[in-house]
């Protein structure tokens, strides 16, 4: 099937959901956007968080992409259609925690769902509720262990096995807790842009490889590194 039909781009929409705050969802959103841009895609972000952290990040940014729209839930469908009209390939939606209206609006238009979580018990308890909401909406879903400390890799592997055992769609790839993520975000950038060959960039590309497959979005250009650490 062609990428463009009757002048309208077959844009994919990926929603990032997490009922619990503090799991690095917004940071993961901008870094996945950078990985998609590296693959040659035109990318937009809908920022549904009332704190508008991604909109503020965009204001600090010199690069043209990704295009960031600060929005209310009722405007999501309209912005998605506008993105298609502009020829975007991917729209990422960042949602606030514990926000039913925003989550419902994102799920209504999403082609796939990404659920970041920390490795703490409180984080993991919230994952079940989020996965349930995504699966009830019949959306392809993956769970990403985020902000994993270097000494927590063994713990992350154990958690991944346990979540797999109960049927959670958990990725083998994880995002480590690295200083490059907050440092680059503060500068209006991403890990891929600041340290393109660094560990953070490799982590992001590994997760993006799975997310792009899940959303049926093919790379337009070759990435720097191939990543295969996915289930």
UniProtKB/TrEMBL annotation:
It comes from the Bacteria. Residues 15-189 form the CobQ/CobB/MinD/ParA nucleotide binding domain. Pfam families: CbiA (PF01656). CDD domains: ParAB_family (cd02042). InterPro entries: CobQ/CobB/MinD/ParA_Nub-bd_dom (IPR002586), DNA_Partitioning_ATPase (IPR050678), P-loop_NTPase (IPR027417). This is Chromosome partitioning protein.
